[in-house]
Structure formats: structure tokens, C-alpha cells
Design a protein that fits this description.
Layout: H1 3-6, E1 9-11, E2 26-34, H2 40-59, E3 61-66, E4 73-79, H3 85-102, E5 106-112, E6 116-121, E7 134-138, H4 146-165, E8 171-177, E9 183-190, H5 196-208, H6 210-214, E10 220-224, E11 227-232
Helix pairs in contact: 2-3, 4-5
């Protein structure tokens, strides 16, 4: 596990500008083995990017493999469950460009946006929960009663973990009414190469990490290569 990143807190203020939607949240160049521009791997990777860009807007998720042997590249793309096809395609298209810019010639990389994630590797990873590529984001504002609030966050997200694992999209959103007319909003989602029980375990593990990053904070996320959870005191999905 990338311990240096598990200790990294990306401070995320409640107000988000419009430009943040199409800006990368984070990325890992997790395979330091390089390929050359003229190699079959480079050709296969470009073909994979084109294929994912075409396929993912159809239902918000796509995976595929291109090539053979050591030149084979595996990849997947996932859009947030509420994102429409146009924004999904745009996000994945931008993600392919950003990965090539920020992880040049690397044989494995992943990038996350608010709207999508994109991952590729020379190693086969479909159906396996990615516990290595993970980061936190936290709202800088504190709540008045951390113990009570944390319990409500766990209640909401635990329910969403179960709901997401029971749906074909492996995605769930929900809300919980709090005191003082406040509403807690939550989201849970897995990549659809996981089965329901694996999705739930991934989400439950992510929820268990929230105290490490986001104790008593108004909002937070644990974002991984196979699943992520998020909560805020404002709506976090498209209306």
C-alpha cells in the first residue's frame, strides 16, 4: 500500500468552482516500468483508450484488453452513476490525455475526477479489489458534535454500501436528515468488474478508514481504484 499517500490529506473546501469538475482529483503512476513510443504496447494502449472512450458512455462503465503477451494492456473506465453520457465521454477523454501527460510512458496508471476514473496496466487486474491506489479528501470545516455526526455518517454510508452492492450499477446515493434542518448526503460506488460481495467489502473497508482522515469533518472521501465513498452537508450528485 502506498503509505505515503495514505497519510496525505487533500483539503477540499465545501464550495467547488465549476472548473473543478473537469480537473483531476489525483493520480498514481503505479507501474514504473516504461514503454517506448514505437512499441507495440504504446500502440495497444492508444487503441485501448479509443475503445474505452467509445464504450464507456453507453452505460457508464467499460473494460477491455488489447494485445498479447508482454504487450497486452488492460484498462477500465467508470463514470459516476449520475453523470450523463456526454459528460462521461468528455471526462474519460480528458482522463486519457492527463494520464499520458502525467504518467508518460508508464505501463500502469490511474487517474480520478469527480465524474470518472480511468485505469490501465500491463498486469491483469479485473475482478480484483485494488487496495494499493487510494487517497483521501477532507472538508476543512469541523462539526459541532463529532461523535454524533460520525455515527450518522457511518449509518448513512453503511446503508449505501449495502444498497450499492445489491444493484447492477454498484452505485448508491442517499441522504439523512440531521438536527438544525441540516441534511447529510452520501455516495458509494464500485467499479463493475467486482461482484456484489467484493464491492461491499471494498466499500466497508473504505468507510472504516474515514476516522483516519475525516473525523469530525463536514465532508470527506476515501477514494480507491475499485471503490469510493463520500459524504457532505451539501448535494454531491447531479439533480
Amino acid at each position: 500500500m502506498h503509505s505515503i499517500f495514505l497519510n496525505l490529506l487533500l483539503f477540499f473546501i465545501s464550495f467547488q468552482g465549476a472548473n473543478s469538475i473537469m480537473s483531476p482529483l489525483f493520480r498514481f503512476c503505479f507501474n514504473h516500468e516504461n514503454y517506448s513510443d514505437s512499441s507495440p504496447y504504446a500502440t495497444n494502449l492508444n487503441q485501448l483508450f479509443d475503445l474505452l472512450h467509445t464504450k464507456v458512455p453507453l452505460n457508464g462503465f467499460a473494460l477491455d484488453s488489447i494485445g498479447q503477451g508482454m504487450d497486452k494492456v488492460n484498462g477500465l473506465a467508470l463514470c459516476r452513476g449520475d453523470v450523463n453520457a456526454t459528460n462521461c465521454m468528455s471526462c474519460v477523454n480528458d482522463a486519457t490525455k492527463k494520464l499520458q501527460e502525467r504518467c508518460p510512458k508508464k505501463k500502469g496508471a490511474i487517474v480520478w475526477y469527480d465524474y470518472c476514473l480511468l485505469k490501465y496496466s500491463n498486469e491483469y487486474f479485473f475482478g480484483e479489489s485494488d487496495e494499493k491506489n487510494k487517497f483521501y479528501m477532507v472538508n476543512i470545516y469541523d462539526v459541532d458534535d463529532p461523535a454524533t455526526f460520525n455515527a450518522k455518517v457511518n449509518e448513512l454510508l453503511s446503508g449505501l454500501s449495502y444498497n450499492a452492492s445489491q444493484t447492477p450499477m454498484l452505485y448508491a446515493v442517499g441522504e439523512l436528515q440531521l438536527e438544525k434542518a441540516k441534511t447529510l448526503y452520501g455516495l458509494a460506488q464500485c467499479t463493475r468488474d467486482l461482484f456484489g460481495p467484493s464491492c461491499k467489502k471494498c466499500l466497508d473497508d473504505a468507510i472504516s478508514e474515514l476516522p483516519d482522515c475525516c473525523d469530525g469533518k463536514e465532508g470527506g472521501r476515501v477514494v480507491g481504484g475499485s471503490c469510493y465513498v463520500r459524504y457532505e452537508l451539501y448535494p454531491i450528485v447531479e439533480a
